[in-house]
Amino acid sequence: xxxxxxxxxxxxxxxxxxxxxxxxxxxxxxxxxxxxxxxxxxxxxxxxxxxxxxxxxxxxxxxxxxxxxxxxxxxxxxxxxxxxxxxxxxxxxxxxxxxxxxxxxxxxxxxxxxxxxxxxxxxxxxxxxxxxxxxxxxxxxxxxxxxxxxxxxxxxxxxxxxxxxxxxxxxxxxxxxxxxxxxxxxxxxxxxxxxxxxxxxxxxxxxxxxxxxxxxxxxxxxxxxxxxxxxxxxxxxxxxxxxxxxxxxxxxxxxxxxxxxxxxxxxxxxxxxxxxxxxxxxxxxxxxxxxxxxxxxxxxxxxxxxxxxxxxxxxxxxxxxxxxxxxxxxxxxxxxxxxxxxxxxxxxxxxxxxxxxxxxxxxxxxxxxxxxxxxxxxxxxxxxxxxxxxxxxxxxxxxxxxxxxxxxxxxxxxxxxxxxxxxxxxxxxxxxxxxxxxxxxxxxxxxxxxxxxxxxxxxxxxxxxxxxx
Length: 469
Prior knowledge:
The structure is a single chain. With 469 residues, the chain is of the alpha+beta class. Helices cover 70% and strands 12% of the residues. It has a four-stranded antiparallel β-sheet with strand order 1-4-5-6, with no helix packed on it. Strands 2-3 form a two-stranded antiparallel ribbon. Helix 1 (2-39) crosses helix 4, helix 4 runs antiparallel to helix 8 (296-317) and helix 4 runs antiparallel to helix 10 (432-467).
């Protein structure tokens, strides 16, 4: 009974430790994702695109409102067309006759000759200053333009959401890659320590005449091989760190806060429960349905379908007339001033209706319909792509989980084999080649287990992103 209690207590302790590691890891990743949302340059650029689309929608809606404008023109002219009026030639003979009649009566002549007149059609100086108000009364194109701008805003915002989902996945995967690279460094360091001790023991055995020099050289060559592995592992850790910091828009050599990687099996079970799936077996259809409901890419393409439909309405609106009310009020004259002869006001109803354009509008409508058809085809294609992505992600996670058990068994076997080889080496009853092979097998198995463990976490992150959890 005491042993059973001990086993039960140990199991509960391990489960609690695994749950705590999962929580710490999830909180750490959530913190990094929050930083990435604020700092990632590409996501900030996508946010700017959304704000631009919102401004374009506001502009489209404002076209229903009146427009008030002030215009002023001051001109000086020289030359131009003129019209001569022979006023003098017509009036002066009559004036002379009247003067002669007055002189005959003893009176002074009263009328003087006048010259011919010349009228200029261009004033030498002229100004025209006015306020204009224009209010659309009937304009079908405005409503279609608003619908198109609203759909474009929705599509742009969905594109930003899709990129944000991909960024969350990339940040988590980059962090997992960094943890994996550092774990590989620890494995290589442990292997280096083993080979250092092996080289020391072989030198002692050689000095005591127990082994030949070739075995010492073989141990030294193996040590150098592990040194090279260490350089590669360190380079991989640096690359993973640089890419992670790039996603967060931080200096590439910034330190990364580390945490204990969760147990892959426990963490996967927790996340699958959050997805509403007890196990991956026979659950792909449910995951696909959830993805088709939640993925922003489908929201984006749906908004693009609405935008394409609004583009058709916009082209069809050109077949209809538009009506606007306009008022102009201002002053005209050679000088600036107010009063009779200078002030004026005009109120107008403006009808614009293109009667015929010999097929131009029909061609644009046909082009808009073709664009609409293309977007609808893309909508079906994207739905199929999402379903395929979910299924492939689930398959990869299933394969990674199955590989984890095999990798763990391989590591345990290699560890036991190396333990036996080390005891034989210490007893001098094993060849150097066999010991080094056992060590290489152990290191390879540990690196494979490390790769497989973190690969499960990567595949889980990909599945969560595919389902848009």
